[in-house]
Amino acid sequence: MFYDTTKADWKLFQEKLPIWQEKFMKKLNNEYIQLLTGPKYDSEKFWELEKRIKTDRRKKGVICEMRKSIMVDNIISLINEDAITLNDLSDFSNELKEYVSFLLKNRNLEGE
Question: 10: which of 33, 55, 66, 70 is 20 to 30 A away, CA to CA?
Protein backbone atom coordinates (compact mmCIF):
# COMPACT_ATOMS: atom_id res chain seq x y z
CA MET A 1 0.00 0.00 0.00
CA PHE A 2 1.24 3.48 -0.87
CA TYR A 3 0.04 7.01 -0.17
CA ASP A 4 1.26 10.19 -1.85
CA THR A 5 0.54 13.25 0.31
CA THR A 6 -2.05 15.48 -1.31
CA LYS A 7 -2.01 19.26 -1.16
CA ALA A 8 -5.31 19.24 0.73
CA ASP A 9 -4.05 16.80 3.39
CA TRP A 10 -0.79 18.73 3.74
CA LYS A 11 -2.62 22.03 4.18
CA LEU A 12 -4.97 20.49 6.74
CA PHE A 13 -2.03 18.98 8.63
CA GLN A 14 -0.36 22.40 8.79
CA GLU A 15 -3.58 23.87 10.21
CA LYS A 16 -4.25 21.12 12.72
CA LEU A 17 -0.76 20.45 14.06
CA PRO A 18 -0.52 23.60 16.22
CA ILE A 19 -3.96 22.83 17.70
CA TRP A 20 -2.95 19.23 18.44
CA GLN A 21 0.35 20.36 19.95
CA GLU A 22 -1.35 22.91 22.19
CA LYS A 23 -3.76 20.24 23.43
CA PHE A 24 -0.91 17.77 23.99
CA MET A 25 1.19 20.30 25.90
CA LYS A 26 -1.82 21.14 28.08
CA LYS A 27 -2.06 17.42 28.89
CA LEU A 28 1.66 17.34 29.71
CA ASN A 29 1.38 20.44 31.90
CA ASN A 30 -1.45 18.80 33.84
CA GLU A 31 0.70 15.71 34.34
CA TYR A 32 3.54 17.92 35.58
CA ILE A 33 1.17 19.63 38.02
CA GLN A 34 0.14 16.22 39.37
CA LEU A 35 3.78 15.26 39.71
CA LEU A 36 4.64 18.50 41.53
CA THR A 37 1.70 18.32 43.92
CA GLY A 38 2.25 14.67 44.77
CA PRO A 39 3.52 13.25 48.06
CA LYS A 40 7.21 12.84 47.15
CA TYR A 41 10.09 14.93 48.47
CA ASP A 42 10.61 18.18 46.58
CA SER A 43 14.00 17.02 45.35
CA GLU A 44 12.45 13.85 43.89
CA LYS A 45 9.74 15.91 42.18
CA PHE A 46 12.34 18.27 40.74
CA TRP A 47 14.49 15.53 39.22
CA GLU A 48 11.52 13.55 37.97
CA LEU A 49 10.11 16.67 36.31
CA GLU A 50 13.48 17.46 34.75
CA LYS A 51 13.66 13.92 33.35
CA ARG A 52 10.09 14.08 31.99
CA ILE A 53 10.62 17.46 30.29
CA LYS A 54 13.87 16.25 28.75
CA THR A 55 12.00 13.29 27.24
CA ASP A 56 8.76 15.08 26.37
CA ARG A 57 10.36 17.99 24.57
CA ARG A 58 11.51 15.66 21.79
CA LYS A 59 8.01 14.36 21.08
CA LYS A 60 6.17 15.36 17.91
CA GLY A 61 3.33 16.61 20.11
CA VAL A 62 5.74 19.32 21.31
CA ILE A 63 7.99 20.00 18.33
CA CYS A 64 7.60 18.68 14.84
CA GLU A 65 9.60 19.18 11.68
CA MET A 66 7.24 20.46 9.02
CA ARG A 67 8.00 18.66 5.78
CA LYS A 68 5.43 17.23 3.46
CA SER A 69 7.60 14.19 2.83
CA ILE A 70 7.42 13.09 6.49
CA MET A 71 3.84 14.10 7.27
CA VAL A 72 2.62 10.50 7.58
CA ASP A 73 5.54 9.59 9.88
CA ASN A 74 4.69 12.59 12.03
CA ILE A 75 1.05 11.50 12.22
CA ILE A 76 2.08 7.98 13.25
CA SER A 77 4.34 9.44 15.96
CA LEU A 78 1.58 11.74 17.19
CA ILE A 79 -0.76 8.76 17.49
CA ASN A 80 1.86 6.62 19.23
CA GLU A 81 2.54 9.46 21.70
CA ASP A 82 -1.20 9.77 22.43
CA ALA A 83 -1.11 13.35 21.17
CA ILE A 84 -3.90 12.50 18.70
CA THR A 85 -6.14 9.57 17.83
CA LEU A 86 -7.40 8.24 14.53
CA ASN A 87 -10.58 10.22 15.18
CA ASP A 88 -8.52 13.42 14.90
CA LEU A 89 -7.94 12.53 11.25
CA SER A 90 -11.65 12.62 10.38
CA ASP A 91 -11.28 15.67 8.11
CA PHE A 92 -8.43 14.14 6.10
CA SER A 93 -8.80 12.12 2.91
CA ASN A 94 -9.94 8.52 3.10
CA GLU A 95 -6.67 7.50 1.43
CA LEU A 96 -4.62 9.05 4.24
CA LYS A 97 -6.79 7.53 6.98
CA GLU A 98 -6.60 4.09 5.36
CA TYR A 99 -2.84 4.34 4.92
CA VAL A 100 -2.26 5.44 8.52
CA SER A 101 -4.51 2.62 9.78
CA PHE A 102 -2.65 0.16 7.58
CA LEU A 103 0.73 1.29 8.92
CA LEU A 104 -0.41 1.23 12.54
CA LYS A 105 -1.85 -2.25 12.15
CA ASN A 106 1.30 -3.61 10.48
CA ARG A 107 3.63 -1.98 13.04
CA ASN A 108 1.56 -3.43 15.87
CA LEU A 109 1.75 -6.89 14.29
CA GLU A 110 5.54 -6.58 13.99
CA GLY A 111 5.83 -5.71 17.69
CA GLU A 112 3.90 -8.79 18.84
Answer: 55
pLDDT tens, position by position, 23-41: 999 999 999 999 999 999 9
Say what the pLDDT of residue 107 is: 79
Q: Tell me the C-alpha distance between 38 and 98, whole Å.
A: 42
In the chain, alpha helices (H): 7-36, 42-56, 71-80, 94-111
Q: How many CA atoms lie within 13 A of 25 on its CB side?
A: 13
Residues in the chain: 112
State the DSSP H helix or E strand holding residue 55, giving kind and residue range, or none if neither: helix 42-56
Spell out the domain ranges in the chain.
Answer: 7-111
Q: How far apart are CA 53 and CA 84, in angstroms?
A: 19
